[in-house]
Every structure is written in structure tokens, then in C-alpha cells.
């Protein structure tokens, strides 16, 4: 009997430089925001690297600290950010993916993602020319895949799920509480990700946050919020 080998996947992870990333978290977490953004990226990259379906993780970023932490990891390739926008960064990643590999892109803000969860999504996406996973709100995109890098055609941005569906991407129906659907844009999302269980880098930042909250005096106005 001939057993078909599993397809090899390249997974692109675009990550904004941490000093500019995750600005919607700034009001809640202040000075910890850059460390938090970088920790989400590190845990997302770790999960992609842990996924047994993934042959290559392509990290597109200008974040030097992040680059130093991942450059020696097995099967990670670093690509410079073209400095335009998210879709241009993804296209720069797709340009270096092996042309015969299936390719997927996930945002770098999935701190609860694990290798097996990503493997399940990639297996479900495999039969399709293009496939998409919806974020927890069912509006944005947390995974876009294509049979070849040239066919990825990323259209991330507000309401991207609808745009990707209109472009023919088939929706991969994961449970709403899948870690692959819990991107962290606002503080409530971080609470939800923490309940799912985040990776080690994000755990360390949450521990710093807890210590900071313990040492900060609670004022009357703060306690009444
Ligand atoms: N390399 C790269 N990554 C990007 C760029 N824009 C967004 N991203 C990444 O794409 C993912 C999804 O983007 P957003 O959720 O909008 O992240 P963000 O822009 O850091 O967050 P906000 O400032 O709160 O809007 C995040 O992991 C970002 O780091 C870009 O221009 N270049
Ligand atoms: C960029 C996107 O969304 P967000 O900024 O909400 O993560 C998207 O879902 O395409």
C-alpha cells in the first residue's frame, strides 16, 4: 500500500516591532505593552515550530530582540519587514516560501496557540485551494492558507474574514474557544487567552503584571472603576 506523505507547510508569522505593536493594550498595561507584544509573538512562533505539519516558520519582523531570540531555532527563517503594512509583510514572507509548499499565515498575537491545535487546522485546510479561520468575534482572520505561496493573496485588515471568503477561501470551522481563534487585541482577549493557557513567554509577562498590580497602591478612584 502506498501511503501519501503529509504535505509540508510553511507558516508565515508577521510581527510588528514591539515598540509599535498592540497599541490597543497600552491604556491597560502601559509600559508592559511592548514586552507583552513580543511575548505573544514568541509564543506564537514557538507553537508554529512545535507543529509537526510545519517544515518552515517564516518570521517577518523588524524587531531585533525578537529576531535574536528566534534566529537559531530549528526551521525558522527571518525576513525583513518591508515597512509598508501587514499585507506587504505577509507577501514578503510568501516570497521566500518554497514554491511547492502549502503556505499559511497566522498573526503573532496568538499566545495560547499550541502545535497540535495548529496541526488540526492545517489538516482541515489541506484539501482546499485557500482556507481561512475566523477570529473569536467572527469578523477578522487568524489563519489564511493556500495551496501555493503565489495563491495566498492576503487581505488582512478590518473585516478581513468577509474579504477572504469573497475571494474563495473556505472557512475552517473551529470551535469558538479554539486557541487559534483567540488573537489578543484588547485586554478582555488576554483574559480569555490566559484561561485557555498561554505559552511560557506570555506567562512570564503576566507574572510581572501581577507583581506590578500587587505593589501599586489602590486608590479610591482606582478601586471604584
Ligand atoms: N511584520 C509586520 N507585522 C504586522 C504589521 N502590522 C501588523 N502586524 C502584525 O499582524 C498581527 C495582527 O495585527 P494587529 O492585531 O492589528 O496588531 P497591531 O497592529 O500590533 O495592534 P494595534 O496597534 O492594537 O492595532 C500582529 O501580530 C502584528 O504584529 C506590519 O506592518 N508588519
Ligand atoms: C488585522 C486583522 O485584525 P485585528 O487587527 O483585529 O487583529 C484581521 O483580522 O485581518
From TrEMBL:
Superkingdom of this protein's organism: Bacteria
A Pfam family assignment: CofC
Keywords: GTP-binding, Nucleotide-binding, Nucleotidyltransferase, Transferase
Binding site for phosphoenolpyruvate: 141, 157, 160
Principal EC category: transferase
Record EC number: 2.7.7.105
GO molecular function: GTP binding; phospholactate guanylyltransferase activity
Keyword Transferase: yes
The keyword Manganese belongs to this UniProt entry's keyword annotation: no
Region (Disordered) location: 205-225
PANTHER family: 2-PHOSPHO-L-LACTATE GUANYLYLTRANSFERASE
Function: Guanylyltransferase that catalyzes the activation of phosphoenolpyruvate (PEP) as enolpyruvoyl-2-diphospho-5'-guanosine, via the condensation of PEP with GTP. It is involved in the biosynthesis of coenzyme F420, a hydride carrier cofactor.
Protein name listed in UniProt: Phosphoenolpyruvate guanylyltransferase
Species in which this protein is naturally found: Solicola gregarius
Lineage: Bacteria, Bacillati, Actinomycetota, Actinomycetes, Propionibacteriales
Gene behind the chain: cofC
Amino acid at each position: 500500500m502506498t501511503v501519501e506523505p503529509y504535505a509540508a507547510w510553511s507558516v508565515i508569522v508577521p510581527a510588528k516591532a514591539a515598540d509599535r505593536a498592540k497599541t490597543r493594550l497600552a491604556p491597560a498595561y502601559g509600559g508592559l505593552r511592548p514586552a507583552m507584544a513580543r511575548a505573544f509573538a514568541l509564543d506564537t512562533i514557538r507553537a508554529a515550530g512545535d507543529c509537526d505539519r510545519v517544515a518552515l516558520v517564516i518570521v517577518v519582523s523588524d524587531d531585533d530582540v525578537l529576531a535574536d531570540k528566534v534566529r537559531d531555532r530549528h526551521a525558522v527563517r527571518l525576513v525583513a519587514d518591508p515597512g509598508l503594512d501587514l499585507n506587504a509583510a505577509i507577501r514578503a514572507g510568501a516570497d521566500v516560501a518554497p514554491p511547492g509548499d502549502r503556505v499559511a499565515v497566522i498573526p503573532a498575537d496568538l499566545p495560547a496557540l499550541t502545535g497540535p491545535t495548529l496541526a488540526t487546522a492545517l489538516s482541515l485546510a489541506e484539501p482546499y485551494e485557500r482556507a481561512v479561520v475566523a477570529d473569536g468575534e467572527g469578523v477578522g482572520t487568524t489563519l489564511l492558507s493556500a495551496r501555493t505561496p503565489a495563491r495566498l493573496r492576503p487581505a488582512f485588515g478590518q473585516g478581513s474574514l468577509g474579504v477572504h471568503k469573497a475571494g474563495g477561501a473556505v472557512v475552517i470551522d473551529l470551535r469558538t474557544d479554539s486557541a487559534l481563534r483567540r488573537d489578543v487585541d484588547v485586554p478582555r482577549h488576554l483574559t480569555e487567552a490566559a484561561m485557555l493557557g498561554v505559552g511560557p513567554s506570555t506567562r512570564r509577562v503576566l507574572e510581572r503584571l501581577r507583581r506590578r498590580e500587587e505593589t501599586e497602591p489602590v486608590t479610591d478612584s482606582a478601586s471604584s472603576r
